[in-house]
Amino acid sequence: MSKRIDVKDLNVYYGDFLAVEDVSINIEAKSVTAFIGPSGCGKSTFLRTLNRMHEVIPGARVEGEVLLDGDNLYGPGVDPVTVRSQIGMVFQRPNPFPTMSIRDNVLAGVKLNNKKISKGEADVLVERSLKGANLWNEVKDRLAKPGSGLSGGQQQRLCIARAIAVEPQVILMDEPCSALDPISTLAIEDLINELKDQYTVVIVTHNMQQAARVSDKTAFFNIAGTGKPGKLIEYGDTHTIFSNPVQKATEDYVSGRFG
Amino acid sequence: MTSTLTPVRSKRSALTKGQLPKYAPYAVLAGALILGAAVLALIGFNPFGWGLVSAILFAVGLVSWSAAVEGSRKAKDKLATCLVVGSFLVALLPLVSVIWTVLVNGIPGLLDPGFLTTSMNGVTGAFDNKAVESGGPVMGGIYHALLGTVQITLLATVISVPVGLLTAIYLVEYGHDGRLAKAITFFVDVMTGIPSIVAGLFAAAFFFAVVGPGTKTGAVAAVALSVLMIPVVVRSSEEMLKIVPNELREAAYALGVRKWRTILKVVIPTAISGIASGVTLAIARVIGETAPILVTAGFATSINSNVFGGWMASLPTFIYTQILNPTSPSNPGPSSQRAWGAALVLIILVMVLNLVARLIARIFAPKKGR
């Protein structure tokens, strides 16, 4: 239940502005890939193009191909809704639906799409998803309570549970720990390690230790200057990127000499 | 051991030196009231002048005492406090006065037998003359007008809410600040400023042209009221939809939910409390309109429960006709009593609607519990 992503010569534009230039990258199935780089270098923008979430931003468009197990996400007639149901996303700030209970938040992907689901099946799905997000023990006695009553870290794990409840092939995470304390961050990182047994995980992070801890492969993005497009500088095994990078810019960044 | 502790001073603390005593404002107030009464007694006493003179004396007295004892910074603070409180009282004065007048004049009308359950059908000047001469109860009631107000307002709401809400959804979710969205926003703003009589004339002319000359029914009045209501509903719903965080929409999209289902199941439920209270306030705004109803529904003295046929009474037009054309021209007392009673009912209706708006906002608000 996981697919690989191959990106070929992808350019991302905001209107006429070229935000990310010429990215080609192969993301393995059942692995964790981390995107690192300074702020504004286009990591998050690029991540959003992997499930067409950039289309929510007015004026954003792409050129190039993103292949999910060989199927082009940007092929003619492809519905972005289908893409997003296969490639889930977790955001920087935890965003459970405030009008729904914890249980309904987990079932949101199913219920909002008006799929019929029996109560028994729903119970199984809720328990499986919450266990998958390491949240079951903390919330099993208050599933009917609103999700907004949880702590920030619990809310973020609820959002992960909500994402895996629709059984995607790939999970994209856009700085999932940047609003969380170290303990909650650790819980999410442990979870990412478990998730890669079943899913392809792509994570954007500003925390290089986090990238080194959780990812199998790391991609370093950089930007030449303000107004210039972001580029993929180097992509390789996390170990190589952090200990023996090929590019000088990568070495400077991971060793903290700049950025 | 006790010697190490600083003994608690029974005299005033050094830290509170140079402050006015706590009773200062009350003392100044008492002085100002007495002095004000004395001044007014010289030129002829009236309560309004007494309040005004006392207020000025109070402000001057407190500020100058404070300036003498506490220094200029505290004195300026006292002056600002006096101005703020004074403005608040001035703003409150008309409200209290209106409620007081309506209560005093309206309660006798409200207590008339059958005031809420009978209409003016068959109530002639002779009844009023008899009521005045023999001191009997005032006959007639506002049932027909109450029924008309409720029906006309309900129909106006049924027309305005879908139109207004859908317009707001278009503006926020689909308009992207494009030309059409900008044009709609502009015209909604213009519509907000339309005088109510113009809305009434529009509805009347529209139905004259479509249905036939002389068409005056509750439905025409409802159309006129919705012309006034729609911009209010659009504006309030738009603001409410705008403050729904974009993250919630993105969260839904990322789950593979279609845009219209996201709007229906995530955006609107999140904003429903604000939308509902906005709608209720829009109803409260149009329920007291007189002019548009007068030219579209006319006025009736008997019960008409068919909103699509025949002239219809409403509370504002009832008040208007009772005051302007008393049932008994020689004894206008009973008519004015009925008018005040109707005014009281109207105010109670608006107040209940405001309370309902708050209740709705609280019931639908996203739960915060743990």
Automatic annotation (TrEMBL), chain A:
Keywords, comma-separated and alphabetical: ATP-binding, Nucleotide-binding, Translocase, Transport
Coiled-coil stretches: none
Family matches, as CDD domains: ABC_PstB_phosphate_transporter
Transport keyword on record: yes
ABC transporter domain: residues covered: 5-248
GO MF, any single term: ATP binding
UniProt cross-references to SMART domains, sorted A to Z: AAA (SM00382)
Family matches, as PROSITE patterns: ABC_TRANSPORTER_1, ABC_TRANSPORTER_2
NCBIfam families membership: 3a0107s01c2
Name used for this protein in its record: Phosphate transport system ATP-binding protein
Species, as recorded: Pseudarthrobacter enclensis
TrEMBL record, chain B:
Occurrences of domain ABC transmembrane type-1 (ranges): 146-357
Protein topology in the membrane: Multi-pass membrane protein
Protein location: Cell membrane
UniProt keyword Transport present: yes
Transmembrane segment boundaries: 23-43, 49-68, 80-103, 142-172, 184-211, 217-234, 266-287, 339-361
Record-linked InterPro entries: MetI-like, MetI-like_sf, Phosphate_PstA, Phosphate_transprt_permease
Keyword entries, A-Z: Cell membrane, Membrane, Phosphate transport, Transmembrane, Transmembrane helix, Transport
Family indicated by similarity: Belongs to the binding-protein-dependent transport system permease family. CysTW subfamily.
PANTHER family listed in its UniProt record: PHOSPHATE TRANSPORT SYSTEM PERMEASE PROTEIN PSTA
Functional summary from the UniProt entry: Part of the binding-protein-dependent transport system for phosphate; probably responsible for the translocation of the substrate across the membrane.
Protein name (Swiss-Prot/TrEMBL): Phosphate transport system permease protein PstA
